[in-house]
Amino acid sequence: MGEAMPIGEDDLQAWIDGRLAPSRMQEVEAWMAANPEAAGRYRAMAAELASLRDALRSRHDAPVPARLRIANLQAGRRRARSRQWRQVAAVCAWLALGSGFGWVGHGLWPMPLPGAAPVSGPTRPMVAEAIAAHHVFAADLGRPVEVASRQEDQLLRWLSNRLARPVSAPDLTGQGYRLMGGRLLPGAGGTPAAQLMYQDDAGARLTVYLRADRAAGGETAFRFTDDAAQGIAGFWWVEQGFGYAVLGQGISRPSLLGVAAAVQRQLLTLPSAPAGAPGQSL
Amino acid sequence: MFWRSAGVDAGQIERHIPALRRFAWALLRDGAAADDLVQDCLERALSRWHLHRADGDLRAWLFTILHNLFRNGRRSVARRGNAVPIEDDAGHGIADDAAGGAAEGHLIWQDALAGLAALPEEQRSVLLLVGVEGFSYEEAARLLGVPLGTVMSRLSRGRERLHRLIEGENAPARPALRRVK
Description:
A: alpha+beta, Phosphorylase Kinase, domain 1, eight-stranded mixed beta sheet, B: mainly alpha, Rna Polymerase Sigma Factor, Chain: A, DNA binding (chain B), RNA polymerase sigma-70 factor (ECF subfamily) (chain B), transcription regulation (chain B), RNA_pol_sigma70_r4_t2 (chain B), sigma factor activity (chain B)
């Protein structure tokens, strides 16, 4: 057939997508010149496609939340497996020993903590702030967080900008806690501080508080703090110029320790996103 | 049971996560639900890594898993628990407006997104896979498990509909061109 194929809808779609074979380009352009009204429509559709791409670009460029990192997902799989085995082992032991020895608790085995043994010790202003913030917000039924986890991207971008460091939300699902959201708070001397709040299936809440802390005392190992007046307890530590506190109310010390260890591990393995401007690309 | 996701190259998968999140968000229009969907997709990919052909297209495989999960409605939206919902997505205009720049451009984006949301799911998926994610027509057909002709007609109808949604209902309906291929 020496004659050119007529221009069809597929050609025009390929033109919009820039996927037209070069040999066909000339014919399509000639057709468009001869059909200006239809050509205008296809040009508009190409422009709409471009604005759709633009509109979705920020979704692509947003920092990936910690729970989607492969290392964390793999760790979650390992934890789920080891939980299964602990339960199986516990039941086997129980069956073997009989009821005389009682229940061999699963989930009560404390997680090993890398580094020094946690001790109680002198506290810092950062810890007092964290306790006060926990006291005020964790008890709030109506609006415990300012930005909820459904907007985790925005929350973390916001906190990262204000704290001038990448802030990720540690994935604590392995410890039974889900992220609820968080807020920005004023630390001592106007230092911006971040509070992330988590909740377990029973409604128990814990908070992770962090802010820059360059006060004397430098790096510390995990320390236990127990505010008897408020009934709030937890672990805190200072690392690379930032102070961290993991606090809860009525949560057992081994559980708190497990959470604190998970928080410390995950915040240390942060991707090195450019601090200060993680959300600028659009 | 396959317990060890042996030989998983985390970096190789993670390269595709931003695009998977964008696709999931465009399908669901909800950041938390989209990340749930991506998480389900990644977990499934890890648990079925042994089924993935080393010479296959990892990106297409991941998108196929995600789209199937989406279509089967197996996404566990409930997983996030009862977080306190707040204003709509544009509410906390934190940092992402910084680059928004031209207000007019932003308006058109909103139109394009709103129009996309108004399309039937079948057309939306094709528009996104081809137009935004850059899959070829053939790849999109394989990914969606439909014939190539179906992809082309969904693409054509979806774009026409989006155009009329954006231009307003009085935009002239067009005389459809015959598909000649």
